[in-house]
Fold this protein.
Amino acid sequence: MPLLTVNQVSHHYYSKTDYTKALENISFTLDQGEFISILGPSGCGKTTLLSIVAGLISPTRGETILDGDSDRKAGNKAHMGYMLQQDYLFPWKTIKENVLLGPKINKKHDASMDQRAKKMLEEVGLQDIGDSYPDELSGGMRQRAALARTLITEPKLLLLDEPFSALDFQTKLRLEDFVSQLLKQYNKAALLVTHDISEAIVMSDRILLLKPRPGEIQEIFKMPGELRNLPPFQARQHPSFQEIFDEVWKEMSALETS
């Protein structure tokens, strides 16, 4: 059984005088340990789709099923972690306190969770800064702390909404490698929204390309095994990378000019 099933999802935004079709008949599945990226022109409903999967909004039509639960239950925050462009760390709390926010909110904070927070900070390379505050960290370190905060609750699915877009290019490349390795280590499934074709290619098992509004799936690109077995930075150097990039770019360009 797939970890996530998105079944014929459509969504409309209504105003007093009109409505806008954001998504139309989106269907796909996501398996445990699989990484899918969502690409498409601006305004095609990528973030709306992510919000529906997260259970933040209900679709106008269709359903999402997470690990056997219907879309109402799929919004259970214990089942998934959400990372955004900004880290949204609380500046008045230490990094360790920020990492422990989820367990405290879910009333699962105990001594064992303190040990888990320590381990997670070690996993993301921040073992020595648990008592530091967010404004003492670089942008890349803050995003790694946000990742630790997301993973400590052991979510079944990670939802990533352009989590690297606010970083400088060098830091972005390093974090892509780091996050890819960590997700494989924990066998986590992930759904990424991005505007970056290169990022989608080197991070993903599959890429869903959406049409302009209303967002429909135009094409699904499956990444070859030789790329998936490489860290993202090395995958960018692989001979097949440019060929895949050109194919996706051609399809995206055609959508934006049609």
Residues 239-257 form the longest helix (19 residues). DSSP finds eleven helices and nine strands in the chain. The beta strands are 4-14, 19-30, 35-39, 61-66, 80-83, 157-161, 189-193, 206-210, 217-222.
